[in-house]
């Protein structure tokens, strides 16, 4: 699926709507409100494009560069998880190309055979190991 970018008219309308301020949400839950200069901001999908996000005015957000980097990090993990779940759902499985590396197990010791060899005296035997 091809990436859907915002039209210029949507970016301009969203920049005017936010009055030149970042619309990012910080970890504390508060809005960033950093002043963004023309050309020093990113227009981001609120609902990621890789999931169900459409390039509309309501889905667009003007973000400063640090807020965009943080949001992108979260979006990438969410999109990857969604793709893995979809692949599991349809049963898509690709076997690994190489065997899973593991430590070699120690070799089993060979069983020893023991023979009883009679000595010169009657009833006395000596045990010898035969390989």
Annotation keywords:
alpha+beta, His-Me finger endonuclease fold, two-stranded antiparallel sheet, 2 helices, 15% strand
Task: Give the topology, please.
Elements: H1 8-17, E1 42-45, E2 60-63, H2 65-90, E3 113-118, E4 125-130
Antiparallel strand pairs: 1-2, 3-4
Structure in a nutshell:
With 131 residues, the protein is α+β, with helices and mostly antiparallel strands.
Radius of gyration: 35 Å
Low-confidence stretches: none
Order of strands across the biggest sheet?
1-2
What is the averaged pLDDT score? 85
User: Got a strand count?
Assistant: 4
Order of helices and strands: HEEHEE
Termini separation: 67 Å
CATH topology of the domain at 8-90: His-Me finger endonuclease fold
Any idea what the CATH architecture of the domain at 8-90 is? 3-Layer(aba) Sandwich
Which class of the domain at 8-90 in CATH terms?
Answer: Alpha Beta
- Structural class, from secondary structure content? alpha+beta
Task: Explain the overall architecture.
The protein has helices at 8-17, 65-90, and strands at 42-45, 60-63, 113-118, 125-130. It has 131 residues and is α+β, with helices and mostly antiparallel strands. The chain has a domain at 8-90: His-Me finger endonuclease fold (3-Layer(aba) Sandwich), CATH 3.40.1800. A hairpin with a 6-residue loop joins strand 3 and strand 4 (125-130). The chain is rod-shaped, with a radius of gyration of 35 Å. The chain starts with 7 loop residues before the first helix and ends with a strand. The mean pLDDT is 85.
């Amino acid at each position: 699926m091809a990436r859907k970018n915002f039209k210029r008219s949507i970016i301009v309308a969203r920049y005017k709507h936010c009055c030149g301020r970042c619309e990012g949400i910080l970890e504390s839950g508060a809005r960033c409100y950093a002043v963004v200069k023309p050309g020093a901001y990113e227009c981001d999908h609120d609902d990621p494009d890789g999931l169900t996000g459409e390039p509309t005015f309501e889905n667009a957000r003007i973000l400063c560069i640090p807020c965009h980097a943080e949001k992108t990090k979260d979006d990438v993990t969410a999109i990857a998880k969604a793709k893995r779940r979809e692949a599991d759902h349809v049963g898509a499985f690709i076997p690994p190309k190489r065997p899973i590396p593991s430590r070699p197990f120690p070799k089993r010791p060979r069983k020893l055979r023991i023979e009883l060899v009679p000595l010169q005296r009657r009833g006395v035997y000596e045990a010898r190991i035969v390989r």
